[in-house]
Design brief:
This protein has 188 residues and is of the alpha/beta class. The chain has one domain (17-148): 3-Layer(aba) Sandwich (Rossmann fold). 39% of the residues lie in helices and 12% in strands. The chain has helices at 4-12, 28-40, 51-61, 77-86, 104-112, 125-145; strands spanning 20-24, 44-48, 65-68, 95-99, 117-120. Helix 1 packs antiparallel against helix 6 (125-145), helix 2 crosses helix 6 and helix 3 packs parallel to helix 4 (77-86). The chain is globular and about 35 Å long.
C-alpha cells in the first residue's frame, strides 16, 4: 500500500499530461467544442469514430478515461460500455457518455450499462473538463485503495511514487497488477 502522502500526490497530479482520454463520436463536428478542453488541461486525446473502432482503441491504448456518444454506428455506445466493463483489461477505465440522447430512460440506460457519468449535449466544455478531472481522481484513488480486487492501476506504468526520493521506506516496487508502495523488505 502506498504511503498516505504518496496517495495525495498521485491524486492531485492526475490533472496533468499523464492522462489519456479516448473520445468516441461518429460526428467529428460534434467533437469540435470539446477538443480544446482536454488539450488545454494537459490531457492527451485520441479519437474513434464508431463503437468497434472505440473498443479496439480502448484495448490497444488503455486510456485513462473514455468519453463516448451513446448512439454509435457498428457497435452501439451502450453495448460498447457493457463490453468494456466485461473485459478485465478495461473494467477500471471510467466511461462517460456525452450524448444528445437526453431522455431520462437514455441516461439511466447509460448509467446501468456501466458508465460513471452521463452528460447531455449541448454541454459546457468547462463542465466536461471538471467531470473528467473528478472521475480521473476517483479512479486513481480507487486503484490505490483496492488493487487486490483486480482492478489494478488505471494509469498503468505511468503511475509514480513521488516520495521515493524523500523516504527510504518507499522505493519503487510497482509491477503491472500491483500497487506502488514500500518494498516488502522496507521497514516502516
Amino acid at each position: 500500500m502506498a504511503h498516505e502522502s504518496c496517495k495525495k500526490r498521485i491524486v492531485l497530479d492526475i490533472d496533468n499530461q499523464f492522462s489519456h482520454i479516448l473520445l468516441i463520436d461518429d460526428n467529428p463536428e460534434a467533437q469540435r467544442p470539446l477538443l480544446g478542453a482536454p488539450r488545454s488541461g494537459g490531457y492527451r486525446l485520441s479519437m474513434a469514430f464508431d463503437g468497434l473502432q472505440g473498443y479496439s482503441r480502448a484495448i490497444s491504448a488503455a486510456p485513462d478515461l473514455i468519453l463516448s456518444e451513446a448512439r454509435l454506428p457498428r457497435l452501439d455506445g451502450l453495448a460498447l460500455c457493457r463490453r468494456l466493463r466485461a473485459n478485465p483489461q478495461t473494467v477500471a477505465i471510467p466511461f462517460i457518455f456525452l450524448s444528445a440522447a437526453d431522455a431520462v430512460s437514455d441516461r439511466l440506460a447509460g448509467l446501468y450499462s456501466g458508465a460513471v457519468d452521463y452528460i447531455v449535449k449541448p454541454y459546457a466544455p468547462a463542465e466536461v473538463a471538471a467531470r473528467v478531472r473528478i472521475h480521473l481522481r476517483l479512479a486513481a484513488a480507487a486503484s490505490l485503495d483496492a488493487p487486490e480486487r483486480g482492478k489494478g492501476d488505471p494509469l498503468g506504468a505511468r503511475t509514480k511514487c513521488w516520495c521515493a526520493p524523500l523516504s527510504m521506506n518507499c522505493r519503487p516496487t510497482w509491477r503491472p497488477g500491483q500497487n506502488w508502495g514500500p518494498s516488502p523488505d522496507a521497514s516502516e
